[in-house]
Amino acid sequence: MRRVGCLLLALAAAAALLTGCAPEEHEEIIFAMDTVMQLQAWGDGAEDALTRAVQRINELDRTLSVVNENSDIWAINHGQGAVEVSPDTLHLVELALELWRDTGGALNIAMYPVVRAWGFTTGEYRVVPEPERAELLEYTDLGRLELDEAAGTVTLPEGMELDLGSLGKGYAGDQVMDILRGSGVTSAIVNLGGNVQALGSQSDGSPWRVGIQDPEDESAYLAVLEISDLAVVTSGGYQRYFEEDGQTYWHIMDPATGAPADSGLISATAVGASGALCDGLSTALFVMGADAAADFWRGREDFEFVLVDQAGTIWVSEGLEDSFSLAQGYEDRTVEVVRR
Amino acid sequence: MNIRRITRMALLTAIALTIFVAEAQIPAPVPIYGVKLGLANIVTVWAVFLLGPADAAMILLARVVLGSLITGQMMALMYSLGGGLLCLCAMIPLRKVLTDRQIWVCSVAGAVFHNIGQILVAIAITRTPSLVVYLPVLLVSGVITGLFTGLCAQFLHERMRKLLRL
Amino acid sequence: MRSTRFWVLIVAAVLAVSLLAAAVVRLASPGGSVAEITVDGQVVERIDLDRVTEGYTFTVEDEWGSNTIQVEPGRIRVLEADCPDQVCVRQGWISDEVTPIVCLPHRLVIQVSGGTDAGVDALS
């Protein structure tokens, strides 16, 4: 579903290009990490930098893929004992462990077997019954994962499988930003399948306008954030789901229950300087729910949030108060500003 | 300050205030922000011309402060002060190059600068510099209302001259 | 002392220039109409009046007061406000950039500008 949206976005961008845009705009649209990615950069050196950025994304895709038999993740999941991995993988597993601890387990990169049992990797969806869930959760205790920084190895306990899907796109975005910045590009925006990351501001100096999708209407956005030099990442139940007996089951699993997260939220957006962090946190906030997410945010300084609950209320952390506005047609929505 | 002068200023302030409050009661003919006749301006122009800058400034100040208090629009105080001060700044030097028959010119200049002052205050308070596009409309309105109040002041002066033997 | 004719010419010139400027503001507009509502200089809402198909109202509340704003295809107005002077309410509908609505007590400005809604640069 989300891919269709991205394709439409890409088509719209292509149409905008044809009808004439600033001459120094450069754009790449690729398919990687199981999603459509759009990269736009302005100015001298942008074309070269984008080419290298695309190479880097493809390299990370090969390294982090859970289905590619030559990837680090495949090696970790199917290997015996300590498996040597690339610095990228090592860094991400470290970050994932840190977030797992910080979020009280709300972000867990070992949920892959659970997600698979529910059918989200194959499309053969089924509601996993309680005893089976408990059994699957036994293999998700990240405290038992061994990481040897010096040797650059990761060791998984028997039965555990990792999937860095909740961090990979954000990390790729950070890498793209580094490459563009290093090449002297001062204005760029990339959309890696809904992970939006901006470098600097628009070429005319105004901030980027990033729309937050309406979880209940994929063709519309309910709010706009005006941002510069930030990552905006949204996790929503609308991105991948199936319905059975009138009940909706989405792909974001609560690591505490082994079932789709049922926190009252239908969308969670994290905004901050680091794409990888925001990627992981958007999932974690979705699992936590509005109250726990607000408490978690009060203990940190490195991100802001926008949450949408089932009643349609939008919760915005105070750091975004000035950059947040409701989109056309959504002026009536209740907005609660969460303060420290 | 002699008693004659104080009495004269008090009288004029009272007249200006009455006109101001009365005008505030009737709906503006064109309900656009900053566009109004400004009948109290008649008194200011007349005072600038015949009593001098110091007296005119005091009458204006008293009228603006009391007027805001009476109509209960303290926000309008800032706004009237900005306009009023700029208006005086334009009228005082002009007075020196105008004859008794050209009082109305002083009023037009006053009204135009009053509107420029209002725009500057509105831009400062709402922090919206783009409000400057509003200026042409307000200038047109300023010229027309300034002309009206100026002619009123002109006629007033011709009658008062005989009456007060000034 | 200048002749009265001189001053008549000056006043006429000021009037002409102002009228011309007002006309230029209106004609220089690229077409389309986007209403931008700002409070204390911050944009709180941007509405493409050409894209409005059905009228609706909403309320902008800030620390200075509240204004209920009504939108219809191509035009916008303040329907209700709790400000003392009510100038914003009495101004009525606006549809172009010539006369913005200003509610000074609430620091609220509604300005219509040419162009169409810029939309967003990316969707998350």
Q: How would you sum up this structure in a few lines?
A:
By secondary structure, chain B is mostly helical.
Protein topology:
The complex is a heterotrimer of chains A (340), B (166) and C (124).
Chain A lengths: L1 H17 L6 E8 L2 E8 L3 H19 L7 H7 L4 E2 L2 H16 L9 H6 L12 H8 L8 E3 L4 E3 L9 H18 L4 E6 L2 E5 L8 E7 L2 E11 L3 E6 L4 E4 L2 E4 L2 E2 L4 E2 L4 E8 L2 H14 L1 H9 L5 E6 L4 E4 L6 E3 L8 E4 L2
Parallel strand pairs in A: 17-19
Antiparallel strand pairs in A: 1-2, 2-6, 3-5, 4-5, 6-7, 7-10, 8-9, 9-18, 10-15, 11-12, 13-14, 15-16, 16-17
Helix pairs in contact in A: 2-7, 4-8, 7-8, 8-9
Chain B lengths: L2 H23 L15 H10 L2 H19 L2 H22 L7 H24 L8 H30 L2
Helix pairs in contact in B: 1-2, 1-3, 2-3, 2-5, 2-6, 3-4, 4-5, 5-6
Chain C lengths: L3 H24 L6 E6 L2 E7 L7 E7 L2 E8 L2 E7 L5 H5 L9 E3 L4 E6 L8 E2 L1
Antiparallel strand pairs in C: 1-2, 1-7, 3-4, 4-5, 6-7
Q: What do you see in this structure?
A:
The complex is a heterotrimer of chains A (340), B (166) and C (124). Chain A has helices at residues 2-18, 46-64, 72-78, 87-102, 112-117, 130-137, 165-182, 275-288, 290-298; strands at residues 25-32, 35-42, 83-84, 146-148, 153-155, 187-192, 195-199, 208-214, 217-227, 231-236, 241-244, 247-250, 253-254, 259-260, 265-272, 304-309, 314-317, 324-326, 335-338. Chain A is α+β, with helices and mostly antiparallel strands and 340 residues long. In chain A, strand 13 and strand 14 form a beta hairpin. In chain A, helix 8 (275-288) packs across helix 9 (290-298). The radius of gyration of chain A is 20 Å and the shape is globular. In chain A, 48% of the residues are buried. The model of chain A is unreliable at 1-9 and 14-23 (pLDDT under 50). Chain B has one domain: Arp2/3 complex 21 kDa subunit ARPC3 (Orthogonal Bundle). The relative contact order of chain B is 0.14. By secondary structure, chain C is of the alpha+beta class. Chain C folds into 2 domains: 1-29; 31-113, Sandwich (mini-chromosome maintenance (MCM) complex, domain 2). Chain C is 23% helix and 37% strand. Chain C is built from 2 helices and 8 strands; from the N terminus they run αβββββαβββ. Chain C has a 4-stranded antiparallel β-sheet with strand order 2-1-7-6. In chain C, a hairpin with a 2-residue loop joins strand 3 and strand 4. Chain C starts with a helix and ends with a strand. Chains in contact: A-C, B-C. Chains B and C meet through helix 4, helix 5 and helix 6 of B and helix 1, helix 2 and strand 7 of C. Strand 8 (208-214) of chain A pairs parallel with strand 8 (122-123) of chain C, so a sheet runs across the interface.
